[in-house]
Structure formats: C-alpha cells, structure tokens
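Hi L.,

You mentioned the student needs an example of a multi-chain input paired with its predicted structure. This one should do, with 338 residues in total across all chains.
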Amino acid sequence: MKEDKHSRWFELEYVPEDYIFSKEDRPQNLDRSVCYSVPVIDLENPKAAIGQSQPVEEILKASEEFGFFQVINHGIPEKTVNDAMSVLKEFFDMQSKDTAGIIPHKKGYIYTSSTDFVKNGVHLWRENIKHPCHPLEECIHLWPDNPIRYQEVIAAYLVEIQKLSSRILEMICEGLELKQGYFKDKSEVQLLSSNFYPPCPDPSLTLGILPHHDPSFITLLYQGGSTGLQVMKDGQWVNVGANPNAFVVNIGNQLEIISNRKLKSIEHRVVTSTHETRLSIATFVNPSPDCIIEPAKHLVNDLEPSLYTASQYKDYVHRNNAFGDYTTAIQNALRSES
Ligand SMILES: O=C(O)CCC(=O)C(=O)O
Ligand SMILES: [Fe+2]
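Structure written out for the whole complex:
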C-alpha cells in the first residue's frame, strides 16, 4: 500500500486491495438488526440487600446462554477508566505519525501496526498493543514509557481490573457450586491487549478482528461508547450494545473446560465503521502457566461425563497457538515474568 509519509495508513477514501477479505470472510448483513441483546447485569442489584449477596444467577444464566454479558455499577472509578483510554489513544496516535509497517517488537510489549497484521493474506483494520501484567510490579517497567504517564495510569487500571475480575470469578464459583476461592490462586490478569480501529471507508469489505474464541478464564473488555463487537448467537452475529458505563465480560475456553461446557466460550469478532473510531482494552484473566485445567470433579458424573482431557495451561496455549502469531512471544514474556 502506498502512503504519504505524513498521513496515517487509514486516511484513505477507498479500501486498499490488501485489506479486502474474500467474499466468504467478509462481514455479511451489517445493517440487519437482531432481536437478541447481550444481558446487562447490575452488580449493585438491590437483591444484594436481601441477603443474596450478588446477582449470581444472572451471571450464570448469561454465561450459559450467551457466554457474554455486560456489568454496570462495577465499582471501577470513571477516572481510572478514562485515564487508561486517553493514554492508550495517545500511544496509538504517536505510533502512526511517522511509522509505516512493522515496528520491531520491544522487550515486554508487542505493538502491531495494521500493515503488520496479516490474516489469511489480508490485513486487519486495526493496530494493537499487548503486554504481560502479572506480577504487576515486575512487568510495569517493561511497558511503553511514552506517553510518560503510560505505566502509572495502566497499572492503576489493572489494579481495579484485578479486583473486579476476582469478584466476578467468585460469583461464577458460587453459581457453579465450586469450592469457595476455587480460582483464587490460579487466576491472574495476565495480559492486556488494546485495539485501535480507525474509521474505514467500506466496512462491508474489512474486519477489525476475525472470529475467534478467547483462551482465558474470562476476559474483561472496555469499549467506551463504541460499537463494532459482535458475538455469535444461534448462527447470527449479534451486536454488543455500546454502554460507556459497562465492562463487557466473556467466558473464555478455560472456564468452558472447568465448567464441562455448562458455561460457553463464544465466538466473537469486530467489524469496522465508516465514522467511528473504536478503542478497546481487553484484559485476559488466565490460569497461571503451570495450572492444570480440567472439568471440576463435581460437575462430572455418569450422566455428564468429562468432555475434556486435563492439560497444563501453558501446553494448551502452545498446542492451540492460542495467541495467534504472537503466541511464542507472549509465552516467553509471561514465563520470564513468573
Ligand atoms: O477489541 C475488541 O473489542 C475485541 C477484542 C477481543 O476480542 C480480543 O482481544 O480477544
Ligand atoms: Fe476476544
């Protein structure tokens, strides 16, 4: 793709050929509305006041039916979230000014420009940064130090995400009737992956992220007030509503295994928009690398036999190339941090 050195790769009036997916891979029916919507769960539900502690049933039901839900009144301060979004926006704005193509991978984080992203021979309409987050004190200095507030702001965000994710996993634990604290020592907010999806001249030809499942226990996603995320439900792509007060939570493959497929890890993707820029922050709450993942014993019986064999998480990641082209880089980064 030819570009003017001063313009960014997406400032175009047409979609370059190497960004156009084949007919089968293109998003279809972008304008068709669907009747489903991903459940929005209020974590300060008044039920909590009458002794039920948390809206556990709602989370379980959403995890069984959709594999996705949104949480509001989640307790993460608005300022912490807004600061994280603005520092990431600054980061992406800086990257694209003078650089076209591949930026060398630095120790501790991976920045991928759009021209570097090739899926099935076609570029994705996004840029991305990924870095490990656990243990926080050991990772923080490996993250970008420009913008200057990046490390401080993102660390504050991750502390809150850790608290919220532990709370959600505790509720799932209660809902599945697992031993209290089941996830406590084996779940870590291990990886942050932030995506920048600029406006696209023709969203019917492109994709921000191809359909995929997450290799996590759960993933927490902040998407501001923007649309574009879609989840597969009964053979149709369903839009996840934009709610700037909510976090999107989805069940990853590891929790699907532990629950013996009671909870579903659902395929999702991101489509682009002609007018909107989408910035998202995905945080993957993963098992620790040595953790053995298998269906919880009490969810397996003669009527419901185990659907999975036990596997160490690090082997699962390796075998399934769970983080795509960057699996080895990410595994190395996680290993050197643990
Ligand atoms: O950027 C998004 O909204 C989706 C991100 C996602 O699905 C992922 O990183 O696994
Ligand atoms: Fe995902």
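You could point out the following to them. The chain is about 25% helix and 20% strand. The longest strand covers residues 187-197.

Best wishes,
N.
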